[in-house]
Amino acid sequence: MPTQHTMGSCCLSGAIATGTTTGTEREIAGLPTYVAEPSDKSKAKTIIFLPDAFGWKLNNIRLLADKYAEAGFTAYVPDVHNGDSLSPSLLTSVEPTLPAKEQMSFLAKTLATLRAGASLGPWLLRHREAVARPVIEAYITNVRTIPGTEKVGVLGFCWGGRYAILAAQKPFSGQNGKGVDAAYTAHPSLCAIPGDFEEVSVPLSVALGEKDSYLGESDVNKIREIMRKKLEGEQGVKCDGEVVVYKDQVHGFALRGDQENEKDKKALDDAAQQGIDWFKKFLA
């Protein structure tokens, strides 16, 4: 049976990254966008970042975009929530670290889930697929028309992670056959498994936490099997794919991991490098 995952309290947890960003804010393809550029200003390899529920202004995603720019990509972080991202003040919930999660009582977890539902429910309704997907697809379409743009990748986290998967499916209408050239998703939420992954038609890299509350071992195995079949062309469309599971990491680790914790910091850095290596290979 297909599994449809939702969002919950662990989507409202984690750490806010410290550090000074180096990019600029501009309007790109009709949306306010954080822009991080490589030293040569080349747009040949462009990556669109699809944020989690905390949106384009969260320091974490901007610092990550800066890192991609240092690696030679032009990075765009658009306001796909139209000014309606959740407040970072909600980053106080269930999974800031694995030890904290494991020490919580059943009652504490239940209360955290209820608080998350009160915040997430109305927000998810406002940013349901029927609303969000056309905004994201129009942005991708318009970015491809920017002079100097050659290859386009898409990268998404949590809420944005599913839309990175959807963008990796068969090119959407109105693009004259041009979608994205490669995609990377980290701890996606709201996914339909196996359906969302079965339709993927471009190289897709997936980063998951071993202790993710939403994607358990069974789901991970299903995703691995789908990617294997695509690599071997068993489902009609042959494309590259990989699934990397990070030991002891919880949902949100690749964007909101604790930089003060050595193990979490390493996973955060390794997940960033996973995406950089993937796009270097498939946006070349």
UniProtKB/TrEMBL annotation:
InterPro entries: AB_hydrolase_fold, Dienelactn_hydro. It comes from the Eukaryota. Residues 32-282 form the Dienelactone hydrolase domain. SUPFAM superfamilies: alpha/beta-Hydrolases. One of its GO terms (molecular function) is hydrolase activity. Gene3D superfamilies: alpha/beta hydrolase. This is Dienelactone hydrolase domain-containing protein.
